[in-house]
Specification:
protease; 33% helix; 5-stranded mixed sheet; 15 helices; 9-stranded mixed sheet; Aminopeptidase; 465 residues; manganese ion binding; Leucine Aminopeptidase, subunit E, domain 1; Peptidase_M17_C; metalloaminopeptidase activity; hydrolase; elongated; single chain; 2 domains; alpha/beta
Length: 465
C-alpha cells in the first residue's frame, strides 16, 4: 500500500499537541472561545485523547491532542501518532506542541506508520471513510520518511500474508517485483540445483515440502562499500519431525520475518540512493513433514564444510542461514548483517518489543545502539560470549544446531552463525520477533519491521558513506 503525506498546498486543519504538565498554561493562552469549549467538555490531555473545537459554522476550527504525562511519553514510541485514529478524516497540520527536529520527525513518521492497514483478505462493500492525513511538518525530510514508511509497509505486507499465499515461490516473486522496482539484478537457485550449487543445508531443510526450497540472490549498485543482508525466509515452520505444538505453530507465517525485513530495508536503501554495493541473500524454504524430512541425529555438511549434528529439526533457521552466510562471506563484504526470527530465547529475554543484536566489534555495536535510540527502533546488545562456544560443539560433528540444557539460546544461536563468517571484517546479527502482539501508536497489530530503521540510520557512519 502507498503511504504518503498530504500535499503541502492542501487546506489543513490545525492540530495542537499538549502535555499533561503544560496543558493548563497552554489553555490559558488560547482565545476565550477555545478555552471555554475545552473547559466545558472536560478535556484532559491523556495520551491519544482528542478534542475537536468547532468553528461556529458546523466545521472543525482546530483539534487538541493529548501527549499524556512525562512517564507516559517515556513509555510510548510514536506518542504523537496515538491521536491519529481519533481524528476525523481530512488533512491536518501540526500547529504547536512539538519541538522541531527529532520530536517532529518521529511524530511525522509515526503518522505514516500508523496509517498502514493490511486489508488484502477483507471484503469492502462500502467505501472506507477518508483517513486522517498529515501535511509534512516544516523542516522534516518528507521524501526520506515516505521511503522509510514504504519499506516498512512492504515488510509488514510480506509478514502478514499467510503461508498459503507466501511460500518460497511467492517470496521469490516478491523479490522479483522489488528487483524490478529498484533496478536490481536477481538470481534464484531452486530445488535440486541447490545441491549442485553447494547449498546443502538449505536443500536439506526445505526438501520435505511440496514447494521447492530456493536461494534468492539480489544485487544492486556498482560503487561504494559492500553491504550484504541475509534474511531468514522460512515461510512456514512446522518444526519438522520435532513437530511444534499447535499453539507454537499459530504464528509461524511470520518465520520469514527476517527475509521480509531485509526486503523492506533494501527498498529503503534503494529509494534513498545510498552509495553501496548491496547484496541480499534469502534462503526461502518451508520446514515441512514428509518422508523426505531431515531427521534428529542427522549430520549435515554445510557449504563451508563444517558438519552439523541435528539435535532438533525445529532449529532449522540457523541451518539455512549458515549456508547463505558462508556464501556471503566468500566475497568478504565490508559488512554482513543477518536478520532472523531465530530463537524463542530472545523473546524470553527481552520480550517482543526489543531486538537483541550481536556485533563483532564495539564500534559497530555502539553505532547500532545509538541509531536505534535515535529513530525509535530499540535494540539491545547481547554478547558473542566466547565461553559458550563449547556448548555448540557436540563432539560427533563440528557443530550442534540445538545445544541441550536450554541456557543462553539466543547467544548460542548467534555463535553458531558466526562460525560461518570469517572473511568479512564486520558482522552483525539481529534476532527479531517481527510481530506486534497488540496495537500501539505507529504499529498496528500484526507483522512489523524491527532493526531496519536503526541499521539504515547507522549505515552512513558504519560504512563511511
Amino acid at each position: 500500500m502507498s503511504i504518503r503525506f498530504a500535499q503541502s498546498g492542501a487546506p489543513a486543519t490545525p492540530l495542537h499537541y499538549v502535555t499533561a504538565e503544560g496543558y493548563d498554561d497552554w489553555r490559558a493562552g488560547q482565545p476565550e472561545r477555545v478555552s471555554d469549549w475545552l473547559a466545558a467538555t472536560g478535556f484532559r490531555p491523556a495520551l491519544g485523547r482528542v478534542a475537536l473545537v468547532p468553528d461556529g459554522a458546523g466545521g472543525v476550527a482546530l483539534a487538541v491532542a493529548g501527549l499524556g504525562s512525562t512517564s507516559e511519553r517515556a513509555r510510548t514510541r510514536f506518542a504523537a501518532a496515538a491521536a491519529r485514529g481519533s481524528l476525523p478524516g481530512g488533512v491536518w497540520r501540526i500547529a504547536s506542541g512539538l519541538a522541531p527536529g527529532r520530536d517532529m520527525e518521529e511524530a511525522a513518521l509515526g503518522w505514516l506508520l500508523d496509517s498502514y492497514r493490511f486489508d488484502r483478505y477483507r471484503k469492502s462493500p462500502e467505501e472506507a471513510a477518508e483517513p486522517a492525513r498529515l501535511v509534512a511538518p516544516e523542516g522534516v525530510d518528507a521524501a526520506r520518511l515516505e521511503a522509510i514508511a514504504a519499506g516498512e509497509a512492504l515488510t509488514r505486507d510480506l509478514i502478514n500474508t499467510p503461508a498459503c499465499d507466501m511460500g518460497p515461490e511467492e517470496l521469490e516473486a516478491a523479490f522479483e517485483a522489488l528487483a524490478g522496482e529498484i533496478g536490481a539484478a536477481i538470481a534464484v537457485t531452486r530445488g535440486e540445483a541447490l545441491l549442485e550449487a553447494n547449498l546443502p543445508m538449505i536443500h536439506a531443510v526445505g526438501r520435505a515440502a511440496a514447494r521447492a526450497p530456493r536461494l534468492i540472490d539480489l544485487r544492486l549498485g556498482e560503487r561504494g562499500p559492500k553491504l550484504t543482508l541475509v534474511g531468514k525466509g522460512v515461510c512456514f515452520d512446522t518444526g519438522g519431525l520435532n513437530l511444534k505444538p499447535s499453539q507454537s505453530m499459530a504464528l509461524m507465517k511470520k518465520d520469514m520475518g527476517g527475509a521480509a525485513t531485509v526486503a523492506g530495508l533494501a527498498k529503503m536503501i534503494a529509494s534513498l540512493g545510498l552509495p553501496v554495493r548491496l547484496r541480499v541473500l534469502v534462503p526461502a524454504v518451508e520446514n515441512a513433514v514428509s518422508g523426505a524430512s531431515f531427521r534428529p541425529g542427522d549430520i549435515l555438511t554445510s557449504r563451508k564444510g563444517l558438519t552439523v549434528e541435528v539435535n532438533n529439526t525445529d532449529a532449522e533457521g540457523r541451518l539455512v542461514l549458515a549456508d547463505a552466510l558462508a556464501l556471503a562471506d566468500e566475497e568478504a563484504p565490508d559488512l554482513i548483517v543477518s536478520m532472523a526470527t531465530l530463537t524463542g530465547a530472545a523473546r524470553v529475554a527481552v520480550g517482543p518489543d526489543l531486538v537483541p543484536f550481536f556485533a563483532t566489534d564495539d564500534a559497530l555495536a555502539a553505532a547500532l545502539a545509538e541509531a536505534g535510540a535515535k529513530v525509535a527502533d530499540p535494540l539491545w546488545q547481547l554478547p558473542f560470549w566466547e565461553p559458550y562456544e563449547k556448548m555448540i560443539e557436540p563432539g560427533i560433528a563440528d557443530l550442534d544446531n540445538a545445544p541441550k540444557g536450554g541456557f543462553a539460546g539466543a547467544i548460542t544461536a548467534a555463535l553458531f552463525l558466526r562460525r560461518f563468517v570469517e572473511n568479512a571484517p564486520r558482522y552483525a546479527h539481529f534476532d527479531i520477533y517481527g510481530w506486534q502482539p497488540e496495537p500501539a501508536p505507529g504499529r498496528p497489530k500484526g507483522g512489523v519491521g524491527q532493526g531496519a530503521r536503526a541499521l539504515l540510520e547507522a549505515l552512513p557512519g558504519v560504512l563511511g558513506l
